[in-house]
Design brief:
Blueprint (H helix, E strand, L loop, with lengths): L2 E4 L2 H13 L22 E6 L4 H10 L1 H4 L8 H21 L6 E7 L5 E8 L5 E8 L21 E2 L2 H17 L6 E10 L4 E9 L5 E8 L6 H5 L12 H13 L3 E8 L8 E10 L3 E10 L3 E10 L8 E9 L2 E11 L6 E13 L3 E15 L4 E17 L6 E9 L2 E6 L10 E13 L7 E15 L3 E12 L33 E2 L2 E2 L4 E12 L4 E13 L11 E12 L2 E10 L11 E6 L4
Parallel strand pairs: 2-4, 5-8, 9-11
Antiparallel strand pairs: 1-7, 3-4, 5-6, 7-8, 10-11, 12-13, 12-30, 13-14, 14-15, 15-16, 16-17, 17-18, 18-19, 18-20, 19-21, 20-21, 21-22, 22-23, 23-26, 24-25, 26-27, 27-28, 28-29, 29-30
Helix pairs in contact: 2-4
Subcellular location: Membrane
InterPro entries: Bac_surfAg_D15, BamA/TamA_POTRA, D15-like
Keywords: Membrane
């Protein structure tokens, strides 16, 4: 019986493959001939002979030094043979990583040919199977605390791969740390290949360490952020059984505050006297003030600009104060917002906001002011909800739905209740995940002539990564809302529903989709719109986005509806920058209305459309 042993050198194999893969050019089997001009030297091609599956052959192409340096030919046949010998060693590691321990590679070089022909004759040999997995303690004692092969994701028997073994080794540590053993250590790994029956056995020697409880938490690196604020976010209590998941949850929560450039949460060695594991939090604060601005252009709205200032640590407890303003041809507004985390509990966020706006739109002209205060709770990492109280005052100089009225004034007290789910992987440019929000707000009129009504709203957006390379993401969104309990024209025009424009149905001008009086939009009692984008990232810098938008504003709050769904289609360009993608979209209405719709609309701004 022939037996070979392979220890932790297998870990180096994966690193080697990754490094070389970044330098090589993948290819299929057969001759690889470079047609471009090459520098002086011994020009050559590389051939592979033997029965190899395409995936294994592609790995050989990636790690081959002879292939990677084909555009830099050696000065002599001897130097080329040296490259081939290096390839043989790299190929052996590839075969071992795939359970082909008996593979052989024979090298031949025909230097008389033009170009020279370097041939690898390969016999991959039989596939070795994983037949035995053993976990033991260093002293050979009780191993009942150690995980079973099944918990590590290993099936016996099954085809051997190095990746499965390395993944399982990582999981040993993860599982035991989740079971209150922070000092777990994998002391040794032995992989034995038996050439007689093509079997592989793996033996891990693991020191599980003692079970522990959470010890005291210490902080380092704080300058302006209060330690009490961060201590209040800790999800465990001292003396509670240690759980690595809680440590990672806390690290993410601290990082999500946006107050730190670096966050490191480490578990120190268990104190044998107390059985407690101290937690050390090392932090590097980032600058807490930001000034930001931007410009955009939309065919239906004209040029626009915005400017904002933000302080993310106003009183040392993560309090945020933000002031912003924006101006375009149809709207100018200014707003201020304040947020106080840890309002009642560490999961509660107090928010207050004030906004004043001047609007000169197709449907109406006037001014409005809104003030709200709310309390929002984070139930899980993705789910949050909130309740608030607000007041909105409006002065409508011109209402196109009621041209006989002018200088009308409205006032409403409203009580918004919200629920949200955010499972996106990225806020600025999501690749996968779901975003869902729903709110319900009763409005009570405070001035004579103002009706009471109920205003539900929802937004649902989904992101699906179809291909990793090239990056291909299918993004979809649906938006809806209604004013229930009153006629549409009895609601102030700045609270009616409108469709059309860059954030709604591209291709149609702003507010132009829905109930109309001649060429003038009057606003609806409800709304439904949807968007679908195929985001194709052609290169790291540039992307192309074909899209389809649709929907309308309805004259009634509830079905049956009589307005048709309007569709707009277009093509977008994305230029990816560190602050988010720059967006340029051109869209056309698919149901163009005479004397109302232009043949196309153009939009330019920063950030994805949704």
């Amino acid at each position: 019986m022939r037996t070979k042993r392979f220890s932790k050198g297998l870990a180096g194999l994966v690193l080697l493959l990754a490094l070389v893969a970044g330098l090589a050019v993948p290819a299929g089997a057969g001759t690889r001939v470079e047609q471009a001009k090459v520098p002086p030297g011994l020009a050559y091609v590389v051939r592979y002979e033997g029965q190899l599956d395409p995936e294994l052959l592609d790995l050989l192409h990636q790690v081959s030094k002879a292939e990677a340096l084909r555009d830099a030919p050696p000065d002599s046949a001897l130097l080329l043979e040296r490259r081939a010998e290096e390839d043989k060693a790299a190929f052996a590691k590839v075969f071992q990583s795939r359970g082909r321990f008996a593979a052989t590679v024979a090298v031949s070089l025909d230097s008389a040919a033009t170009p020279a022909v370097l041939t690898y004759a390969i016999d991959p040999g039989p596939q070795f199977d994983l037949r035995s997995v053993v976990l033991k303690t260093p002293d050979g004692g009780d191993a009942s605390a150690l995980p079973t092969p099944e918990r590590l994701g290993l099936t016996v028997p099954s085809p051997f791969t190095a990746k499965a073994i390395l993944d399982a080794e990582t999981k040993i540590t993860e599982l035991l740390r989740d079971e209150a053993r922070p000092d777990v250590k994998v002391d040794n790994r032995q992989v034995t290949a038996n050439f007689a029956d093509h079997a592989v056995s793996v033996v891990w020697t693991v020191s599980p360490g003692p079970k522990a409880t959470f010890g005291p938490t210490s902080f380092a690196g704080l300058t302006t952020v209060k330690e009490s604020y961060l201590a209040g976010m800790i999800p465990w209590k001292q003396g509670q059984p240690y759980d690595a998941k809680d440590v990672e949850t806390y690290r993410r929560a601290v990082n999500a505050t946006g107050l730190f450039a670096a966050v490191q949460v480490e578990t120190a060695a268990v104190d044998p006297a107390t059985g407690q594991a101290p937690i050390k939090v090392s932090l590097t604060e980032r600058k807490h003030r930001t000034v930001k601005g931007g410009v955009d252009y939309k065919t239906d709205e004209g040029p626009g600009a915005n400017l904002g200032w933000e302080h993310r640590n106003l009183f040392g407890g993560g309090e945020k104060l933000a002031v912003a303003g924006s101006a375009s041809g149809i709207e100018q507004f200014a707003e201020a917002a304040f947020e106080k985390p840890d309002a009642l509990t560490p999961k509660d966020l107090f928010k207050a906001k004030a906004r004043v706006a001047n609007e000169d739109k197709k449907a109406y002209k006037g001014q409005n002011a809104t003030a709200t205060a709310s309390l929002r709770r984070q139930f899980t990492d993705a789910v949050s909800g909130g309740v608030g109280l607000g007041y909105r005052a409006s002065r409508i100089e011109e209402d196109e739905s009621r041209p006989w009225e002018s200088d009308a004034r409205y006032g409403f007290v409203f009580l918004p209740v919200e629920l949200g789910y955010d499972g996106r992987d990225d806020v600025l440019d999501p690749q996968k995940g779901l975003l869902a929000t729903a709110s319900l707000a009763p409005y009570w009129g405070t001035l004579s002539g103002a009706d009471n009504f109920l205003r539900p709203e929802f937004t649902l957006a989904h992101y699906l990564k179809i291909l990793e390379k090239p990056g291909l993401v299918l993004a979809t969104r649906a938006v809806g809302g209604a004013n229930i309990g009153t006629d549409s024209e009895n609601v102030t025009p700045d609270l009616r529903w409108y469709a059309g424009g860059s954030g709604s149905i591209r291709g149609y001008s702003y507010q132009s989709v829905g109930p109309m009086r001649g060429k003038t939009p009057v606003g609806g009692a409800s709304l439904f719109t949807f968007s679908t984008e195929l985001r194709w990232r052609v290169t790291d810098l540039v992307g192309i986005v074909p899209f389809l938008d649709g929907g309308t504003a309805f004259g009634k709050a509830l079905p049956p509806y009589d307005q048709p769904i309007m569709l707009g289609a277009g093509l977008g360009l994305r230029v990816y920058t560190p602050v988010g993608p720059v967006r340029v979209d051109v869209a056309t209405p698919l149901a163009r209305r005479q004397d109302i719709d232009d043949i196309a609309q153009f939009y330019c701004s920063i950030g994805q459309s949704f």
